[in-house]
Write a structure and sequence with these properties.
This protein is α+β, with helices and mostly antiparallel strands. The chain has one domain. It contains three helices and four strands. It has a four-stranded mixed sheet, with helices on one face. Bound molecules: zinc ion. Zinc ion binds next to α1 and α2.
Length: 98
């Protein structure tokens, strides 16, 4: 994903950008004012899947706490992986050159 991607989340148009947020260890960002999700381009595979899901959950549920979003992202990723629902899709994603 090198170009920004347009998606609809929570009935609103969002742009997903391949860009690392500021801050040490930050890999994703949900900017409700700009309607942008940032995903660090270095992420790949299951880590990328979980980050996209996490930021998407922030867009879907703006009032949910960070703890709730974190738990849902981790647990749903594990559920889908355990059921074989994301294995091939997540593993086929290649990291960006950035
Ligand atoms: Zn978060």
């Amino acid at each position: 994903m090198s170009e920004p991607v347009k998606v609809q989340l929570n009935g609103i148009d969002w742009t997903v950008i391949s860009k690392k947020p500021r801050g040490k260890g930050h890999i994703g960002k949900c900017d409700w004012e700009k309607r942008e999700l940032w995903i660090a381009p270095s992420l790949a595979g299951i880590q990328r899947f979980e980050c996209v899901l996490h930021e998407g959950l922030h867009a879907q549920m703006p009032d949910a706490s960070e703890e709730a979003v974190e738990r849902m992202g981790v647990e749903l990723t594990e559920l889908l992986r355990a059921c074989g629902a994301i294995c091939s899709a997540a593993e086929s994603i290649q990291p960006s050159e950035n």
